[in-house]
Write a structure and sequence with these properties.
- There is one protein chain.
- This protein is mainly α.
- It has two domains: 49 residues, Arc Repressor Mutant, subunit A (Orthogonal Bundle), CATH 1.10.10; 164 residues, Orthogonal Bundle (Tetracycline Repressor, domain 2), CATH 1.10.357.
- Helix content is 77%, strand content 0%.
- The chain contains twelve helices and no strands.
């Protein structure tokens, strides 16, 4: 592919990403994307054949680098020596998301992910399963390693709450600032607050299991021996 053709393809992906993030898959046409990119609709179809292929291409193009960063950090925590801290695991998943918002088009991609994961048709398209789930599975492996004595169900529910809240923050709708006034703003500094909050919640869940096990152990110890 020539450099000029590659530039046109990149422009199509960039404008498609922004339009899909703002209006969703079904709210955008091939002509809308072509007009925004300054190319004929036939060129969009030449590169991607269908709108669904273009939609998937947007996820794969931007997600490749993002997933590489997250996978490397999480795999180190899963396979490295010693037990990782909960905060390390949460930062490994969240930090690339906060960083991507600082690059051109990053906010649109984050909003697109948030839109896709909440779409009722998401499972049938399989985009999240292909581009996001492998990293999410590594995240849960690392989280389980950081919390070996916790109830696995509590760990997975807590991890899902973390992911859901992260996606909401990445959508960057401005709602938190609108509701809180001067008190809250979703910016780079909010990553640490976000991680600290969920780390405390996960530790609380683990402590709950330990207390239950201790109570059960005390009951067993106090039970009379059978005659």
């Amino acid at each position: 592919m020539s450099a000029r053709s590659q530039d046109k393809r990149s422009a199509i992906l960039s404008h498609a990403e922004e339009l899909f993030a703002n209006f969703g898959l079904h709210g955008v046409s091939i002509r809308d994307i072509a007009d925004a990119a300054g190319v004929p609709p036939a060129l969009v179809l030449y590169h991607f054949s269908t709108k669904d292929n273009l939609y998937q291409g947007v996820f794969e193009s931007r997600g490749r680098d993002l997933n590489t960063l997250r996978e490397k950090a999480l795999r180190t925590l899963v396979e490295g020596p010693g037990r990782p801290e909960i905060e390390e695991v949460l930062h490994a998943l969240a930090r690339p998301w906060f960083d991507i918002r600082k690059v051109r088009g990053g906010v649109s991609y984050a909003r697109l992910i948030a839109r896709e994961v909440s779409d009722p048709d998401e499972a049938s398209r399989g985009i999240i399963a292909k581009t996001m789930d492998p990293v999410a599975k590594l995240f849960f492996q690392a989280l389980m390693r950081a919390m070996p004595n916790a109830n696995p169900g509590d760990v997975h529910w807590g991890g899902h709450y973390f992911i859901a809240a992260l996606m909401m923050m990445m959508a960057n709708t401005g709602r938190i600032k609108r509701l809180s006034g001067k008190y809250c703003k979703a910016d780079r500094s909010s990553e640490q607050q976000f991680v600290d909050f969920y780390a405390a919640a996960l530790r609380s869940a683990a402590a709950k299991k330990r207390r239950k096990m201790a109570r059960n152990g005390a009951v067993v110890a106090q039970a009379p021996s059978p005659m």
